[in-house]
């Protein structure tokens, strides 16, 4: 009997999860109220109503609930259950995190939720329940259930099981940082540039500068794997500040001298902001030289960002939900990005929600981002690195970039931001606001550019000419009269 009961319950759970997973994973842009969450859970168990049918051969084999309500108590049974399940909702909405609420639902017990559903079926069918909230929460709870046993352990590195083939330096804390050199030899270079890659990329990133320009100007490029990426060791104590220290130590050990440049691309921009904040302007340090941000991410938690500018930005909600899962439910996030039943990471590729037409054309010609594939994401070291990188970029910083003062008051060097006007990952409105708050930044805008402008013909050359020579192209000056997207 015990084995049959276990089998029946396992079958029942499989049916529930299958139905939950089928519906509503696009919950991140929905602002669910406590009322919607409460009503949504009432039909959480739609998938089990067949199991309660007397004709179901498994129905009699299911274990009975531990608590059997007497007939006179059935009338107030739902109130007792509601008291146990919904007690967190007595708090203010902002005090109840999504993860806490979900875990409370799960621990409250599935049998009780079935009873609530059955007793409230007429109310549910009355149409007073937000169907969107119901469907989306069903999907969310299904994912949580499926992922509870998939918590990923921290590992010793993304390249733990791969032989090291790149040049590396050993940092003061014992970690190794892998790097790659391009362009003219360092000893003959007139300009030395450190390139900081973004999320899912590495020191193998492409920066499409014409070879003729590299040779004529004498440019030396230093690319490196940020902590945990590629063949660099992870940093268990990694912070926004430590990113700047890694760059400084890399430059010192490779003897780049007192004047070099830094270009941060996309997610690699938070490392570059960190340099502006934490590396002092003194001999043999970074800020005797210019800095360029290419489509830099904007952290919605920066205090200076006005609420009117970000309140309705759907990207902000996506980031908020992603941070919550990455922080409180890494197992859920790991399962979601590696499962094959429904599209997850694959939906990013060529998706017009994230890329404009020109970006999509670029994606057809490049190999993509190897670390963002499902095969790579199954490696726990890779997953942990990407998760930590995302949390640092969009988590709470120790400073607000818009409080920074001009690091070059005598105009001895410069800071640049390059942005695509049609960028759907980082909206142009935010970049214009940032550059407006920091008038010492030189702002450039690619008129038909998306998030992948670093792959566009001519853009990398324009970036280098502006950074190294101070040349400005009229075609990349922002058109303030143009209607914002």
Automatic annotation (TrEMBL):
Query: Which InterPro entries does the record match to this protein?
Result: AB_hydrolase_1, AB_hydrolase_fold
AB hydrolase-1 domain residues: 193-454
Listed Pfam families: Abhydrolase_6
Instruction: Output this protein's name.
Output: AB hydrolase-1 domain-containing protein
Organism of this sequence: Carpinus fangiana
